[in-house]
Amino acid sequence: MSRKHQETILENVVVESVAAEGKALAHIDGAVLFLQFAVPGDIVDVKVTKKRKNYMEGYILRIVKPSEYRLEPFCRHFGVCGGCKWQPLPYRMQLEAKQQQVYDQLVRIGHLEVPEVSPIIPSEKTEHYRNKLEFTFSERRWIETWENPDEIAPEDRVGLGFHVGRFFDKVLDIKHCYLQKEPSDSIRLFIRRYAVSHGLSFFNIREHRGLLRNMIIRTTEAGATMLIMCFYYDDPEARKGLLDAVAEAFPQITSIYYVINGKANDSIADRECILYKGEETICEEMEGLKFRIGPKSFYQTNTLQAYRLYSVVRDFACLQGNETVYDLYTGTGTIAQFVSGRARKVIGIEYVPEAIEDAKANAKANGIANCEFFAGDMKDVLNADFIAQHGHPDVVILDPPRAGIHPDVAEVILEAAPDRIVYVSCNPASQARDLALLGEKYRITAVQPVDMFPHTHHVENVAALVRKGI
Fold first, then answer.
1. Catalytic residue selected from 81, 177, 283, 426
2. Is residue 368 part of a domain?
3. pTM of this prediction?
């Protein structure tokens, strides 16, 4: 170890394994060192950025000797863009790390009694697997290390792409993204060129000024495309010119919406989405069921894996056809409708009113008569009176946000005591906490990880619970 300009540089560090949150791990003099973008077997020189009593964090200054497993990243933006951090890691090793993450959270850290964790279900696609991406406009894009700021032309200083790492105000101008299929890239690049050539102002995130703020592109497996353009304020002439140009250049776009969002944050949940051209919705299909997707609709972003995930949920529910199922955090009712053919009645509850409207419309369009949907905060809606009115649940399906379920919700579920619970989670840590609460009356009978997001550390996990005594 040597000191350079009061910085700690570690030389010839041997990377040992993949750790939590997608980082890699090494040991230095008894302390743990966490690294981004490293592969087990790498020998690297490291600059330490954080030093604590029992651990350090740092980044790679130089790869002295690459691991035999290391792959060449396929994306030119790797290492700067905040996504797809596991590109150098073979997909097999990604799956192993996610499998281990689920085991660690539930068993090693959570101390839960679980059967053997089933082998993770891999994603059929590892590129172009997302059906939704959001891009941000920036008046001042991220300047890459190899660029000379003094030589950058004014029109090249703007950016349209993704936020960089932990910087809320830094946006990387994306040339090509491997997450979503065409025409996603072509639409984004066309809009950037049009905006620059017509003098449309890009958003300044710090000072809150500029016309063009965000854009969202949604695609379906069948080839439909939806564009949602978000403007900071309305300039009817500029807006019409841009949207007409996009519509002419990309006649295959199914729906074009626009939003005026003058708020401090980027969320459009409380903004009106105005249909400018085309169809109100695009459509995704699953086992003959059609799901209409609007500009605000929630739908699993990896369509093909969503089918595998929902199939696991349905299998774990062990439905015989006479059960009342409560699908909590139902979103647009996709799981509710997917399992409805094997249940007597399904009750879906979701916080977002627009999502419930989508759920009702989808159920009607699919000819499903045994699903009912209700909007409201879960801890307020789900109570003893609600259950008395709508029927005792035989099976409860949970698919909450990353934070997990509210303790009040867990209490109501324990009081209702359904025979089975199927818990879907995108955060095994909060899932482990909730499973411990439910462990008062339930035992875990199956655990199935599903990879929804290749080249990231994120993992979806499904747990089956059966009431003790059954």
1. 426
2. yes
3. 0.92
